[in-house]
Write a structure and sequence with these properties.
Helices cover about 45% and strands about 15% of the residues. It is built from 19 helices and 14 strands. Helix 15 packs across helix 17 and helix 15 packs across helix 18. Strand 12 and strand 13 form a beta hairpin. It is an alpha/beta fold. It is elongated, with a radius of gyration of 26 Å. The protein folds into four domains: about 180 residues, Rossmann fold (3-Layer(aba) Sandwich); about 90 residues, N-(1-d-carboxylethyl)-l-norvaline Dehydrogenase, domain 2; about 90 residues, NAD(P)-binding Rossmann-like Domain (Rossmann fold, 3-Layer(aba) Sandwich); about 80 residues, N-(1-d-carboxylethyl)-l-norvaline Dehydrogenase, domain 2, CATH 1.10.1040. Bound molecules: nicotinamide-adenine-dinucleotide. The site of nicotinamide-adenine-dinucleotide has 23 residues, from helix 1 and helix 4.
């Protein structure tokens, strides 16, 4: 018979716990909030208070509803008060020893039927469950921050979770107005594994000098349509938390792409943890960087464009008043290309005047300097790109440049995750849309870009970096060979 949950305990009323308590109480459940001491309990009550007052002042909650939520919530310092709860969810700090000690106590205090849940982001639910006498009734219920707002809940079952329990907890999540995805107990679950792999890779590209952090941020925001760039997001999550999650991912996968980029460790050691300390990759005390304007005279006498789409771009440049010249004599040669351009440069009498240009979406253009390009020419092409109404993303002449080098391995990782039987395509798409605010899930993106384009892009990345993680997953390769165009239609 399906379980029903009426009384829920929440242990730890910090950032996540207070939000989780609010979510349960809003859905009409009785909530018992537990904290370590009176001071922390007051802080937790204050967190809930402020959040509800905000909702009332914004007209999202009536005063009667707020009073009802408070009427259903009790606060206590005694774990014993959880003895009759149907479910207890833990949201204390992400330290395994703390969690294990708490679960041992909860197992002793709570009735044998009580389900014990953890909100851990990265620790093993199986290892936590093993400290209890009821591992079959221990589960992960991973909410996202801020819990009252974010719709996603990852329901994490282990190899010993009782049959039907994950389904019952998913039903409970729906009752809370959330969208559950059900996943197994692997480091990072769906969202953190895919997200942190991508964010760490962005830090690696930065370290390799492929592009500057502001430009990588602009590329992923404007070129891939993500809500924010990777370094802005890392700063928001906190570099200490990001470093820790990567470390946990690496411990399980032993894959170099999860090994925290050294720059993360360096920033953490320096105490530059992101937004919460005022500085991380970016500085939050500064006013925004002034955007280089399109004004002023461009130092370009004549331009020559080569590559696919050259006629169209030449016509637009002529219309904008740029003189056209032959490749051997033009001041600037633009090679339109989605692949490295050095081989075009070496065929010219003045290879230092060649710059690669990759138009991505409607808003950005990657401006590619080879080892021979002189900086003034790259700068002039950057200005010229602004005249065309796009944001230039200066970068080095490497396979995938910036957007594809970051996006394709992330898509590949999602296929790998699906192929390993870890979660369904639909759940992975839902998780990334709701957990990260992405406009589309990875499988939706794959279908929109085209499987063959992504497969070929990954092959080029692998050929350049020799990083096994970049090699197309065998499933992707097989689908392209079989002529399948929509991965979700299979
Ligand atoms: N912050 C996030 O963005 C986020 C998102 C998803 C999941 N998580 C996970 O949620 C959990 C909590 O994270 P947080 O950011 O809310 O931490 P937090 O530090 O804001 O809050 C933790 C709270 O737990 C209390 N506490 C510590 N030991 C306790 C005990 N034995 N009994 C009762 N209360 C105790 C502390 O007093 C504190 O108020 C972690 O496992 C974290 O990985 C965090």
């Amino acid at each position: 018979m399906a379980r029903t949950f009426q009384t829920v305990g929440v242990v730890g009323l910090g950032t996540m716990g207070a939000g989780i308590a609010e979510v349960f109480a809003r859905a009409g459940l009785q909530v018992i909030g537990v904290e370590v001491n009176a001071e922390a309990l007051e802080r937790g009550r204050g967190n809930l208070d402020r959040s509800l007052d905000r909702a009332v002042s914004r007209g999202r909650l009536s005063e009667t509803e707020r009073d009802g939520i408070f009427g259903r919530t009790t606060f206590t310092g005694a774990l014993d008060d959880l003895r009759d709860a149907d479910l207890v969810i833990e949201a204390i700090p992400e330290i395994m020893d703390f969690k294990r000690a708490l679960f041992t106590d909860l197992d002793r205090v709570c009735g044998p039927e009580t389900v014990l849940a953890t909100n851990t982001s990265s620790l093993s639910v199986t290892a936590i469950a093993a400290t209890t006498s009821r591992p079959g009734r221990v589960i992960g219920m991973h909410f996202f921050n801020p819990a009252p707002v974010m719709k996603l809940v990852e329901v994490v079952h282990t190899v010993v979770t009782e049959e039907g329990l994950a389904g019952d907890v998913a039903t409970l999540a729906r009752r809370l107005g959330k969208t559950p995805v059900t996943v197994g107990d692997r480091a990072g679950f769906v969202v953190n594994r895919l997200l942190l792999g991508y964010l760490n890779h962005a830090a690696t590209l930065l370290e390799r000098g492929v592009a500057a952090k502001e430009d990588i941020d602009a590329a992923m925001k404007l070129g891939a349509g993500l809500p924010m760039g990777p370094f802005t997001l890392l700063d928001l999550i906190g570099l200490d938390v990001s470093h820790e999650v990567c470390e946990v991912l690496f411990q399980e996968s032993r894959d170099r792409v999860h090994a925290p980029a050294p720059i993360l460790r360096e920033l953490v050691t320096a105490g530059l943890l992101g937004r919460k300390t005022g500085r991380g990759f970016h500085s939050y005390d500064d006013v925004a960087r002034p955007a280089a304007g399109a004004g002023g005279k461009l130092g370009v006498g004549s331009v020559h464009v080569l590559g696919e789409g050259a006629d169209e771009l030449s016509a637009r440049l002529s219309a904008a008043g740029f003189k056209q010249g032959e490749a051997h004599e033009a001041d600037v040669v633009i090679a339109l290309s989605s692949t490295p351009v050095i081989e075009h440069a070496v065929l010219l009498p003045h290879p230092e005047r060649l710059v690669g240009l990759h138009l991505v979406g409607e808003d950005i253009a990657e401006v590619v300097s080879t080892v021979l390009t002189v900086p003034e020419v790259a700068r002039a092409v950057g200005d010229l790109v602004r005249v065309l109404g796009r944001t230039p993303v200066p970068c080095a002449d490497r396979a995938g440049f910036v957007v594809e080098a970051l996006l394709y391995p992330y898509l590949n990782d999602a296929v790998r995750m699906y192929d390993a039987g870890y979660a369904s395509m639909e759940d992975i798409d839902t998780a990334m849309r709701l957990g990260c605010g992405y406009p589309a899930g990875p499988f939706e993106m794959l279908d929109a870009i085209g499987l063959e384009v992504v497969r070929d892009g990954l092959r080029a990345l692998y050929a350049e970096y020799r990083e096994p993680f970049f090699a197309p997953t065998p499933l992707l390769d097989r689908l392209v060979t079989a002529g399948v165009t929509g991965i979700r239609d299979r």
